[in-house]
Amino acid sequence: MNEQSTKSAATQPAVSHATFAVERAYPVPPERVFFAFSNLDSKRRWFAEGEGWVVLEFTSDFSVGGSEFSRFRFGDGPEITNDTQYQNIVTNERIVITYRMAVAGAPISVSLATIEFSPSGKGTVLTYTEQGVYFDDASAGANREIGCRELMEALARELAVAA
Amino acid sequence: MNEQSTKSAATQPAVSHATFAVERAYPVPPERVFFAFSNLDSKRRWFAEGEGWVVLEFTSDFSVGGSEFSRFRFGDGPEITNDTQYQNIVTNERIVITYRMAVAGAPISVSLATIEFSPSGKGTVLTYTEQGVYFDDASAGANREIGCRELMEALARELAVAA
């Protein structure tokens, strides 16, 4: 599933909408994968940290209506902020979030992400579906999907170490 | 544009994703249409009130990061809640919101809506694009689009009276 539409008018910046879905299997049960999303330290490790990334701020309230905020940059790059809100939580089964991102203070996108955890043998199939709107960059949806796949690999490393 | 995918697994409720877009022309300039979204009293009139609807609560903070909350029912029906957050605002041009809805306390959906105001002659073309995830009801996306078109007509009446 990959759908993208671009709209542009002379009077306002282009806005594009895109949806993508990423599926990834992990060799640990749903409870363990869910924990990596709900636990602050674990989430910070695989989601915010990583070689070359400087985490300036990371706070999270994992509850419906709760906010998660991260502020970071890559190397000497511009500051990036992520304002997330938890919208729906079904323990060990589903998390729905919305988030907006800005680079150097300029809004670049708003997204709605559905994360589903399904048992598969002794492991888990995670399905990540993101519906988003992007400002001023019609190719941003495709780039976001690449970034998302990288995060799913970072999560695999977190689960391998801490399992 | 109308895309819908349904996923269902034995271990968790069905989740469906849908996107729809509604376009509506109004005979007043973008500033006037934008005002009907940004002004609390005007928004409440066309968005929350209406024949048969009982508005139990309506509060709004029209600013990025600000929340809007409404609690209402239709006749003697169950209580419905709408938790909205303003995600992006470009005065007279664009509003992006996310919102979750619940009926009798049970979550039914989370949505990301992009509202664009484009000048057209002396009037405005409003484009409303909603990307959503629905819980336990695969036909909910189609119903939401019907409800949205009704709201665009209620907005037309508000603009006709107050213009």
Automatic annotation (TrEMBL), chains A, B:
Residues 28-158 form the Activator of Hsp90 ATPase homologue 1/2-like C-terminal domain. InterPro entries: ASHA1/2-like_C, START-like_dom_sf. It holds the Pfam family AHSA1. Gene3D superfamilies: 3.30.530.20. Belongs to the AHA1 family. This is Polyketide cyclase. It comes from Rhizobium pisi.
